[in-house]
Amino acid sequence: MAAPQGPITVHLRRGAASAAADLLVLPVPEGQQTPALAGIDRGLARPLRQRVAAADFRGRTEDVLVHHAGGTRAVALMGLGRHPTDGDGWRRLGARARREADRQGARRVAIHLGAAAADTAVVATVAEAFLLAGYRFDRYKSERNERRRVERLLLLGDPVPAAAAARAALATVDTVVPHVMRVRDLVNEPASVATPRYLAAQAEELGRAIPGLDVEVWGVKRMQRENLAGLLAVARGSREEPRFLKLHYAGAGARARVALVGKAITFDSGGLSLKPAKAMETMKYDMAGGATVIGAVAAAAQLALPVEVTGYVPATENLPGGSAQKPGDVIRYANGKTVEVLNTDAEGRLVLADALALASRARPDAIIDLATLTGAVRVALGGLYAGVLGNDQGLVDALLVAGRAAGEPLWQLPLVAEYRDDLKSPIADLRNVGGGDAGTIIGALFLAEFVDGVRWAHLDIAGPAFSDRDLAHAPRGGTGFGVRLLVRYFQGL
Length: 493
Ligand code: BES
Ligand code: MN
Ligand code: ZN
Description:
Shape: elongated
CATH architecture of the largest domain: 3-Layer(aba) Sandwich
Helix content: 25-40%
Bound molecules: ligand BES, manganese (II) ion, zinc ion
Number of helices: 15
Number of domains: 2
CATH class of the largest domain: Alpha Beta
Oligomer: single chain
Low-confidence stretches: none
Number of strands: 20
Mean pLDDT: 94
């Protein structure tokens, strides 16, 4: 698995803005142009002041002013907006610095953080956003953009944090970012490449590369023995074989045992309840939850975090075919529950049911599932927020906090017990769809039926897992949403 870019070394140094760099980035809080230029040498500060005055640069988040200082050197003033102290402002700044660097083909970039560098969180956030914004998925482009050349990022500040603290924060960034990018790669890879077997092979490769990470892959025989009825039912329409992935890492001095469950429908056509063509265009990303679980367990292992994590990833295609499951079919699950499948396009909950029941049996302290489960959550929350629902407010709160800190925000929806009636079937214990209202809540209520006596939260990531337009920190496509959030959550245990 090749990293999508060459390695970039990140350094933190005490000092002002005179350091040698092809591109020097000066973050400017809204309305404070003059102090930001105070540390700059006078030969540079004078023309910058003139340009700032002439260009209506006011330090708003979208304000950028690039000044070419002779030779390959350039200085970019970038607005931080009104709330420069919150993480989002710094995250955007880091991402925009990278975009400017790529545009200019800069090799060495310096960002002048000033007094803000005293906060290790700011240093780490800026570095992380800078690295993440450099992601490209161009392996199918015959002409690649060769202007991406950044080799070194120098973060300048005064004061700077203790060397050990800064080094630890930057090392974490350095470890996590490649996992986010690998998840993006898995999501962006076309579905005819990224099959269940491919996902399994990628996970196995990670297992070989990362000490302490164990990866187990179940084929059809083992699934039959374990009675993974939902996964086998959904897989029936496909010629590609399903796989069930189990990843495990037990950190020394683990403070908690967490189960992660990730939906990995490597292509969702809807099955016999076929989707319209337009709705299918991006359905290669229906495995994003599973990819994120693989990435999060791998990152936890590589960071040697004090947590025990088990990842459960049911992987299959959802296709129509001569032996596909049919609307009206009934699935009998290992825990005895029966489900009438009225819509084969509500397949995610069918495969997650097996995994949640299996995870429950291991009695972990918490189960967190990630799934591109409903179009409805995209309607409700759009492309930037994931929905979170769960049976334990403490767990949901911890995830809300981790999401905010990571810049991967969640919004809670209620698990309305009264709506459970919508899932009643005349011939089985449950049906797999409701009447149409509150689709995201109904999806979660279905999943709750398979969680047995364990604290549980469900992240519906159908919105933020894939972006249909370029974002500051990720180009159009898979975003890797959730990896950084989960790492934060583990760190907070
Ligand atoms: N994978 C889809 C959900 C989805 C839709 C993800 C759009 C990302 C973008 C899921 O399997 C699905 O088809 N859900 C149905 C549920 C319905 C049949 C109850 C949906 O949202 O329409
Ligand atoms: Mn579907
Ligand atoms: Zn789906």
